[in-house]
Amino acid sequence: MEDGVKKFLYVNRKAPYGTIYALESLEVVLIGAAFDQDVSLAFLDDGVFQLVKSQDTKDIGVKNFSPTFRALGDYEVTKLFVEKESLDERGLTADDLQEIMWEDEDEDYAEKPSIRIISRTEMADVMSDQDVILSF
């Protein structure tokens, strides 16, 4: 724990629509980041569908909140971990995910990707390095 700042990992396991979990997670992440928490997100199981690009929700009558993920960099949320095995099991690849970038102030505002596709083993390592894990 650097400078007394706790690391928070928000684990997303649910599909983006059909339940309130995905939207609630995103809202809690934005609130936590606004209070200068060290925030990361993990996407596992059906949670990987939350990051799929070009979502169209008009036929199900709910607001498409997926573009909000692109604002996370403005809140200094720059670590979005996606489990490769969850993508593979659902027939998805990195190309199916939206591009989420952040600007690195230390490198003259160079844009860098926020999404990191990691293995199940690496995800376990990420989780073990956290102070607080909240699952949605």
Summarize the model shown:
By secondary structure, the chain is an alpha/beta fold.
Question: What are the main properties of this structure?
Answer:
136 residues; alpha/beta; Hypothetical Protein Ychn, Chain: A; five-stranded parallel β-sheet; two-stranded antiparallel ribbon; globular
Q: What's the pLDDT, averaged over the residues? A: 92
CATH topology grouping? Hypothetical Protein Ychn, Chain: A
Contiguous helical run count: 3
Give, in order, the helices and strands: EHEEHEEEHE
How many angstroms separate the termini? 24 Å
**What is the strand arrangement across the widest sheet?**
6-3-2-1-7
The structural class is alpha/beta
CATH superfamily: DsrEFH-like
Based on the coordinates given, report the CATH architecture: 3-Layer(aba) Sandwich
Low-confidence stretches: none
Count of β-strands: 7
Beta-strand proportion: 15-25%
Radius of gyration: 15 Å
What does this protein structure show overall?
This protein has one domain (2-135): Hypothetical Protein Ychn, Chain: A. The protein is 21% helix and 24% strand. The chain is built from three helices and seven strands. The longest helix has 14 residues, at 21-34.
